[in-house]
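Notes taken during the Thursday session

The instructor put the following on the board and asked us to keep it in front of us for the whole hour. The protein is Cytochrome c biogenesis protein CcsA. We were told not to look anything up and to reason only from what is written here. First, the residues (323 in total):
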Amino acid sequence: MPIDENIASYSDLAFKSAIVVYVLVFVMLLVQYAMAYTRKAEQRELVAVGANSPATPQGPGRIAEPAGKPVSERIGNMAFAVLHVSLGLHIISIVLRGFATHRFPLGNMYEFVTMATGAAVALGVVLLRQERYRGMWAFLLVPVLILMFLAGTVLYADAAPVVPALKSYWLPIHVTVVSIGSGVFLVAGVSSLLFLLRLLQPAGEESDNLLGAIARRLPDARSLDRLAYRTTIIGFPIFGTGIILGAIWAESAWGRFWGWDPKETVSFIAWVIYAAYLHARATSGWRETKAAWINIAGFVAMLFNLFIINIVVSGLHSYAGLN
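Then, after some discussion, the predicted structure tokens were revealed:
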């Protein structure tokens, strides 16, 4: 069937609009950070002044007015609400791309990255909805925005039919599972990075510099470590299932389950790294810093697989990249 150019243009518009709204959310979160930091500094100054001033009892008949929510907190709540709008636009762009091409929208790197980042944000909306996790959103949006920017520029591909090698019912099965697993690992990687930051700036002992101001909005180290572990537990079987499904598809398409193609090999290496993380996380002496670095290494392997293997290295999966 011919490509519906009108629907394709609406898909692109929804994608660009999602990026704009994500940027708006990111700016709102930065404003929240700045206002919270300023408010904290003012409170410290008031405490210092109060310590050097004589006590003044409250006059009779004067009632202290209850303080409302700080402006920074209200901005943060607004940002979280607007985030749902951007996620909605993100999902609409994926759905419209599918309608425009009359196929499942996972036929090239642009569509894969769009799906993976959408999965990461959707998982974040579920797992980071509690107030104590809201401070993580600014950090999660950084890789999401970078990946979406690259998807919309360097990796962008016009709506078109897939190459013959991808005309299989295995495409929506295999690639969807892998993209969702990749999105989950993105959340896990960010959580481990923030966990390492929290170890440098423990809760309640933050320094007065910029690093301390950033860490002050984050959950405690234990919560971040637990979140990284939980998300990796979710992503590990999903991504592993994607590898197995890819092997089954390979046997159907190429006559063998495994051929050590660069894409297959690095995917397997990344999966093994995450297995090592889960093992280290349960091993005494490796649970904290060492395990977190292993988790980050797994995420780096995923990025290497996405960009270097797809774009630079030639292999049986080259039709999905730019080489």
